[in-house]
Structure formats: C-alpha cells, structure tokens
C-alpha cells in the first residue's frame, strides 16, 4: 500500500503494487505552489514521507500524520541556518528510528492528511480531504505506509 499525492491535480491516490486503486479529491495549504521551507509558509511539503501517527481525535474528523520534517528537510534547514545542529540531530535520529520527528522547529511540522473539506486550498500546509473520504482512507492505511507528495 502506498499513498501518492499529486498537488497540481489536487488528487490523492491509493496504490497497491504500483497501481492506483482509488482516487480522492484534496485541498492543500494556502500557498500550494512549491515545497514547504519553514513554519507558517502555507506550503504543503513535497517528497517521500511515511505515515508516522494515526489520530482518531483530530479537530478535522480523523488524521494521518506524516514524518515531516525528514532527514532531507533537516539537511536543508541546517544548511540554510533555519535550525540548529541539535535540532538537526534530533530530526535525523527520529526519522532513522521510525519515530515522529519534532514538529516544533522553524521548519514546521504537524503535516497531516485530514478531513475538513476540499472546496478550496485552506490548510496551513496539510492535505485536506472530504470527511467521508478520510474516514475510508483512515480505515485502510497503517502507520508506516509510504507517502509520495509530487508538485
């Protein structure tokens, strides 16, 4: 099982064995073009992630948390002076151990696939779905599921 998110098309696809088996409409962050760089930029990150947490008590119906920031994001953040070497180390170690990375650094965090609707791009960087769709996806997806977010 794998999730593929196509930002430009506003689609989330559920794949099995490399083939799409189901598609859903999505909404993105309020500034949807480009990769997430820092907290508050309104962008949805791009790249390779995994579902690191399932939240049954989400403010937006249900939610699947992604392991953003990743090791690559930490490398960029350290290089660009956005995070300290200690923050870099904690992000890298969490990702290597398969744990949720810290979500309170200047890179941002708490990137979820959640409910709340798809009428417009409205999140602060998350991927929003219609409530019935996130209920269906939540029941299928497990922690550790790979997620690709394409531009």
Describe the structure.
The chain is α+β, with helices and mostly antiparallel strands. It has one domain. The chain contains 3 helices and 8 strands; from the N terminus they run βββββααββαβ. An 8-stranded mixed β-sheet has the order 3-2-1-8-4-5-6-7. The mean pLDDT is 96.
Q: Which structural class is indicated by helix and strand composition?
A: alpha+beta
Strand order of the largest sheet: 3-2-1-8-4-5-6-7
User: Which percent band covers the strand fraction?
Assistant: 25-35%
Number of domains: 1
Average pLDDT figure: 96
The proportion of residues forming helix, as a percent range, comes to: 10-25%
Uncertain spans = none
Order of helices and strands: EEEEEHHEEHE
Span between N and C termini? 21 Å
Q: What gyration radius follows from the Cα positions, in whole Å? A: 14 Å
Structure at a glance:
Helices cover about 20% and strands about 25% of the residues.
Highlighted features:
alpha+beta, eight-stranded mixed beta sheet, 151 residues, single chain
């Amino acid at each position: 099982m794998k999730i593929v998110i196509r930002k430009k098309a506003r689609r989330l696809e559920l794949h099995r064995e490399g083939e799409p088996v189901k598609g859903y409409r999505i909404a993105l962050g309020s500034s949807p073009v480009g990769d997430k760089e820092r907290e508050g930029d309104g962008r949805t990150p791009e790249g390779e992630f995994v579902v690191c947490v399932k939240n049954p008590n989400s403010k937006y119906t249900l939610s699947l948390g992604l392991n953003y920031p990743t090791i690559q994001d930490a490398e960029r953040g350290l290089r660009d002076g956005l995070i300290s070497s200690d923050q870099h180390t904690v992000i890298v170690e969490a990702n290597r151990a398969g744990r949720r990375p810290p979500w309170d650094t200047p890179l941002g965090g708490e990137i979820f696939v959640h409910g709340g609707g798809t009428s417009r791009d409205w999140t602060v960087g998350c991927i929003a779905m219609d409530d019935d769709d996130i209920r269906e996806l939540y029941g299928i997806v497990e922690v550790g599921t790979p997620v690709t977010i394409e531009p």
